Amino acid sequence: MSMALLFDGSLIALILAVATWTIAVRNSFAAVIGYATYGLLLALAWVRLAAVDAALTEAAIGGGLTSVLLIRAVVRLRPTESAARAETPGRVSRLLAAVLAGSVTAALALVVLTLPDPAPTLAPQVAEHIASTGLGNAVTAVLLSFRAIDTLLEAVVLVFALVAVWTLTPDDLWRGRPGPRYDLDENGMLAYLARLLPPLGIVVAVYVLWVGADLPGGKFQAGTLLAAMWLLAIMAGLTEAPPISRRWLRGALVLGTVAFLVIGFAGVPLAGAFLAYPEGYAKPLIIAIEAASMLSIALTLGLLVLGPPEQGP
Amino acid sequence: MNLLLDLWTVVAVSAGVFFFLAGTVGLLRFPDTLTRLHALTKADNLGLGLVVLGLLPRVGSPLAGLKLICVWLLVLLAGATASQLIARAVRRSGPPA
């Protein structure tokens, strides 16, 4: 018991230290590396809280994908960084920022400290009704059955984010290929890894999706893995990113949302409510939605990292 | 038998932790990027391998043991690739100031 306490204590101290360092450090690249480390440590904290689903998502999205996005942003902002650092905000704006940040922290602390004990929970209801979904993983049951509408809107938001990135395309490159051009180094280490790893990564992604019904896992984690494998192949120069004007690409981007909507509306005549599943068919339908969403999420995340088009079609 | 397995775990994991410690000291103390990479990747690969070997008798099923070994092999691959890429970037751009 005391060993566990020691571990948790050191983990919390490390997380706080890395978080403070990430905010305090002046170099943006160092801050991004700090942020990635912070995400991985946070994933460990979720594991300690027995929330393995959240841990997988944090490691994949928070630690991995977001950090890659931020690294690209840092590289792009590098020419302007020294100019931005030379400017120091005035006394008033610093004071305002401190007051704002301080009051948000104070409000959060107040809310957490005044939570009723025991905290309000819907877990008993979930445990009671999970049998009706045929799923074994309560998190998947909540995400795709009890609160399916939230998950549906999340998928839509992701597509909007990609549309926002694409709006940054220069006019003459519209319809072009996203991201810079990567040259293939036939005998290079990266090309070797990009040939060796993707088969393994795809198998792991499908496994993570499949066990998501009964164990921690699901479409977001699997989609991130697929996106990583795709980006690896693109960055090694083994394949090119498709031009954003391709119809199959745009179709695949909304495939998950469309499948979700079709199955959701089919629930109106068949099960009596939007997003309700007919008796006995819940699990196969949920897995169908998850599989379609995994492909859309993988494409969307990959294209988000690649950024707006930088080459002609 | 159990005592032997416990002993094995303690010895192997401790040796693994020692290599991690040595690698970290190397990372902090060595003078340039290439030697720091050398210290880090060698020590981490060996350290994690020893930790995995030490944990193998503890796993509940052969599948879990296989997963542990896969994790080690994947880290070996990722570490070797990343260090090669960093080393190549250093050689191309010259040692950082």
Quick gist of this model?
Chain A is mainly α and 313 residues long.
The ordered string of helix (H) and strand (E) elements of chain A is HHHHHHHEHHHHE
The multimeric state of the shown protein is: heterodimer
Query: Over the alpha carbons, how many angstroms does the gyration radius of chain B reach?
Result: 16 Å
Put simply, the count of helices of chain A is 11
Outline type of chain A: globular
Structural class of chain B: mainly alpha
The N- to C-terminal Cα distance of chain A equals 60 Å
- Average pLDDT reading of chain B: 87
The largest chain-to-chain contact, stated as pair and per-chain residue counts, equals:
A-B, 7 and 7 residues
Strand content of chain B: under 5%
Kindly name the structural category of chain A. Answer: mainly alpha
User: How much helicity do the residues of chain B have?
Assistant: over 70%
Number of E strands of chain B = 0
Which ranges of chain A are low-confidence, i.e. pLDDT below 50, for 5 or more consecutive residues? none
Number of strands of chain A: 2
Query: What is the makeup of the main sheet of chain B?
Result: none
Contiguous helical run count of chain B: 3
Q: Quick one: biggest sheet of chain A? A: 2 strands, antiparallel
Write down the Rg of chain A: 22 Å
Spatial order of strands in the largest sheet of chain A: 1-2
Topology (SSEs and partners):
The complex is a heterodimer of chains A (313) and B (97).
Chain A: H1 2-24, H2 28-48, H3 52-86, H4 91-113, H5 123-129, H6 138-146, H7 148-166, E1 177-178, H8 189-211, H9 219-235, H10 247-271, H11 282-306, E2 309-311
Antiparallel strand pairs in A: 1-2
Chain B: H1 2-29, H2 33-55, H3 62-93
Helix pairs in contact in B: 1-2, 2-3
